[in-house]
Specification:
Strand content: 5-15%
Number of strands: 11
Distance between the termini: 45 Å
Structural class: alpha/beta
Helix content: 40-55%
Order of helices and strands: EHEEHHHHHHEHEHEHEHEHEHEEH
Number of domains: 2
Largest sheet: 8 strands, mixed
Strand order of the largest sheet: 6-5-7-4-8-9-10-11
Radius of gyration: 41 Å
């Protein structure tokens, strides 16, 4: 910031001097009527809401006044010196005048040096203050839009934008933080975002889609209403179409709820496949022995809450089974992220081999289920997107899921923006 005082015979002349000296961006701080004309105080790069700037103005004006007093004293001294040396020889007069001029020049140089030192000191203080304010603003952005999981490592503005986009997709903050911090922040934002989407897809584990060819023994576990029985029906129907009804057997472990096994029994009757219900004593090995000749054995478990007294018995039945059984966790995409995490925690002791994403047709946010799969390293095995048997079942592709998740996030953002605009318009 540069501050200067101008004296002129009239206001127009004073303003002209301000424009010539400081340029069109100068700010007029004050004007005063003097006996000989007008005084105008102007500044360049002045911010009125900054108390430090006002102090700087007063300091520079004080320095200018001292400089003017010094110049007046120097002129008076030269006048007195010239009067005293009138009767001396011209040579002595010249030497004295030169000495006085040198003295005044030295004094002026000292004053200029002191003024420059004070100005630099004021500039350094202002720079330190601005740097502190920028640091506080950056920390504020980190705490509100950046990494809430690692506040000691602040994110750049672009990383915070990527982090927020991951949040819009529903990704867990710890995963979003890792993605945002590993993306090349020097690239344009959209290019960095495409890199982030690729990283998200690479983080998603996907199981080999060989169930319909290889067969095996599979048990579906998960909460009530997750779509386990319907998914088993779709898999069984697909396998029957490829290998015949005699190659498939269905088993239910649900002996706890009235008519809970009727749906699976109906599916078995319509497909013409074998159907068994596990006895109360939990002899799953005996049923697996009976179905040893079948290529595909699908086990439907009861959707019990973790506090249900029958829940540990069902887990024990699957854990102590002598025959190898692949356990798949059904994750309904309509559930909240915390519910999906709790479901994983309840069933992970079984030794889960993968997960099935169900109810994609009713889903509006894929991020929570994708977070469970990525953070728990739980391979995506199947995806279902409707109630129709056998059609609405697919093998997952990570890139397509990530693209769909991004589209859902964009649609949700557009809907809320439109709703907010309509709300403002109706006010």
């Amino acid at each position: 910031m540069k501050v200067k005082r101008f004296n002129a015979a009239n206001m127009q002349q004073a303003l002209r001097l301000v424009s010539q000296e400081l340029g069109p961006d100068a700010v007029i701080l004050s004007t005063k009527k003097l006996d000989q004309g007008f005084e105008v105080v102007a500044a360049l790069d002045y911010h009125s809401d900054n108390q430090q700037a006002q102090q700087e103005v007063e300091r520079q004006l004080h320095l200018q006044r001292e400089l003017e007093v010094a110049k007046t004293e120097a002129r008076q001294q030269r006048t007195r010196t010239a009067s005293m040396t009138t009767n001396t020889t011209s040579a002595d007069s010249a030497r004295k005048k030169a000495a006085v001029a040198e003295l005044a020049s030295a004094r002026q140089e000292r004053q200029n040096h002191a003024a420059r030192a004070d100005e630099k000191m004021g500039y350094d203080r202002s720079l330190d203050q601005v740097s502190g304010e920028l640091r506080e603003l950056k920390n504020w952005l980190v705490s509100h839009q950046g990494s809430a999981w690692n506040s000691s490592r602040p994110l750049t503005w672009q990383q915070s934008q990527l982090w927020q986009r991951c949040q819009d997709m529903g990704l867990e903050p710890v995963w979003a933080d890792r993605i945002a911090s590993h993306v090349d922040a020097s690239a344009p934002l959209e290019q960095s975002w495409q890199q982030a989407l690729t990283m998200i897809a690479n983080d998603l584990p996907v199981a080999a889609n060989d169930i319909l060819n290889r067969g095996g023994r599979y048990a579906l576990v998960g909460p009530t209403g997750a779509g386990k029985t319907t998914t088993i029906g779709k898999l069984a129907a697909q396998f029957v179409m490829h290998h015949g009804a005699e190659s498939v057997a269905l088993i239910t472990l649900d002996n706890y709820r009235v008519a809970a096994h009727d749906q699976l029994k109906t599916i078995a009757r319509l497909l013409g496949v074998k159907w068994y219900r596990a006895p109360q004593d939990g002899d799953l090995d005996g049923l697996l022995e009976k179905t040893r000749q079948c290529q595909l054995v699908l086990i439907d478990s009861a959707g019990l809450a973790s506090r249900d007294p029958h829940f540990p018995a069902q887990l024990t039945m699957l854990k102590e089974c002598k025959y190898p059984v692949t356990k798949l966790l059904a994750l309904p995409l309509t559930s909240q992220g915390r519910c999906l995490q709790e479901n994983y925690e309840h069933f992970k002791s079984l030794g889960l081999s993968g997960c099935v994403l169900t109810k994609l047709d009713e889903c509006f946010c894929l991020g929570p289920a994708m977070s469970v799969a990525a953070l728990a390293k739980l391979p995506l095995t199947l995806v279902t997107d409707g109630p129709h048997i056998p059609d609405d079942i697919h093998f997952p592709q990570a890139e397509k899921l990530v693209k769909l998740a991004e589209q859902m996030a964009r649609m949700a953002r557009t809907r809320w923006q439109a709703a907010d605009a309509m709300s403002v318009a109706n006010q």
